[in-house]
Design brief:
This protein is mainly β. The chain is about 5% helix and about 40% strand. It has a three-stranded antiparallel beta sheet, with no helix packed on it. Strand 4 and strand 5 form a beta hairpin. The radius of gyration is 15 Å and the shape is elongated.
């Protein structure tokens, strides 16, 4: 039996529930200023923060992801040493 939307914890984070959450983002490395595509994981929650290395210069970033109600993501990348 399917839970009503208001009881389903995934519906609370992503109420659209139709696969429209963004799964990629384009960011600029704070070290080398190159454009880099990164993968996003909407299944990890509506607010995320983790460390990822630049695929160009290998420097570590802090990546902050915030999903909006419509499934779009706001992604910020900052130098890890800041």
């Amino acid at each position: 039996m399917r839970l009503p939307d208001w009881l389903d914890p995934l519906e609370q984070d992503f109420p659209l529930g139709d696969g429209t959450a963004e799964t990629e983002a384009t960011v600029y490395c704070p070290y080398c200023n190159e454009t880099v595509e990164i993968a996003l994981d909407p299944g990890s929650g509506s607010a995320q923060e983790y460390v990822e290395d630049c695929e160009v210069c290998c420097q570590p970033w802090t990546v902050s992801v915030r999903y909006r109600q419509d499934g779009t993501a706001r992604v910020n990348v900052t130098a890890l040493d800041q």
